[in-house]
Amino acid sequence: MGYKIPVSVLVVIHTPDLQVLLLERADHPGYWQSVTGSCDPGETPLQTAIREVGEETGLDAAQYALTDWRRTFEFEIFAEWRHRYGPGVTRNTEHVFGLQVPAPLPVTLEPREHLAFKWLPRDAAAEAVFSWTNAAAIRELPR
């Protein structure tokens, strides 16, 4: 397998009343996050968002309101995950999307990636995630 591209997506899945879906990482129990994933070669961030939502939750993003927030974050890649990227790559650009679903839905987890899921109110979800970019994106949901 080749190196990951340092361009990724963050998809905040939420309900109209701002319940937010969080997933617990299998490779780091206790780390909760929204749907995330790196772009594959030749893939647009929108295509990545649709693919990652399907892979990580079993939901078909085309069935719901997927929006490009036209927001990006740049961050330093955690040292424990840098081996996945090419030599000298230390920063990643993350494109933020929102996916509004009608109500908290059950999801089908990819067990190699996630151990559990939960729906939390917006503010509690922002406090629960380990990534500052994820917390900032969740907080951008309207009050």
Quick summary:
By secondary structure, the chain is an alpha+beta fold.
Helices and strands in order, then pairings?
Blueprint: E1 7-14, E2 19-25, E3 32-33, E4 35-38, H1 45-57, E5 65-76, E6 91-100, E7 114-121, H2 122-128, H3 132-139
Parallel strand pairs: 1-6
Antiparallel strand pairs: 1-4, 2-3, 2-7, 5-6
Description:
This protein is of the alpha+beta class and 143 residues long. It has helices spanning 45-57, 122-128, 132-139, and strands at 7-14, 19-25, 32-33, 35-38, 65-76, 91-100, 114-121. The chain has one domain (7-139): Alpha-Beta Complex (Nucleoside Triphosphate Pyrophosphohydrolase). The protein has three helices and seven strands, in the order ββββαβββαα. A hairpin with a 6-residue loop joins strand 2 and strand 3 (32-33).
